[in-house]
Amino acid sequence: MSTNLLTLEAVQTHIGAYHILHGVDLAVPRGQLTMLLGRNGAGKTTTLRTIMGLWHASQGRVRFGDKDITALQTPQIAGLGIAYVPENMGIFSDLTVKENMLLAARGAKNAGQIDDTRLKWIFKLFPAVEKFWNHPAGKLSGGQKQMLAVSRAIVEPRELLLIDEPSKGLAPVMINNMIDAFAELKASGVTILLVEQNINFAQRLGDTVAVMDNGRVVHSGSMAAFSADAQLQQSLLGLAL
Asked: Could you tell me which residue ranges the ABC transporter domain spans (predicted)?
């Protein structure tokens, strides 16, 4: 079995007339949390969307384990055990928290059919999901919506989570709660690829890091080594951690 759960090989992505990804090489080790860093516009979100099949690579390969998923449609990719939490969270505001969760639990026809053990685990990770179970999702705070978005992604067992800027706009206490939850998710064996701008978040959670610039991965390695190299941080991100 490969040590990498997800591999991108020379991936290029065009969106209309725009050439966004220029040959992305990326390896996401199995059972680890990989941080995807880079300046705004570097191609991080496009990379996640390409993996998920929302946009298709014009060249290169995306592999999940030993399976080539480059040309698969998004529902097929999701069926392999990959979940995506977009930056805008994708919450259905007019539906309750329970109804949002039920939509993601494809094997359940009603809330009573959602795996009870798994649901209790999610409630432990994100108590707000249980507290506001019957409330309209649109009434939740930004942090609570983010917790719901991640909860939806894991309501069924997943091998890989793709998460785009989960700490954006959150209060520090919410960020700490999110860090604790992701640490527990990782400990459960889930592999995570996470785009993040919050450097403290990245340092505390990341096992490995990949830095993008101009549609390419320009650095990859351990998060600990990257955190210890202020000169490298400055050259790649324009700031020091």
From this structure: 6-239
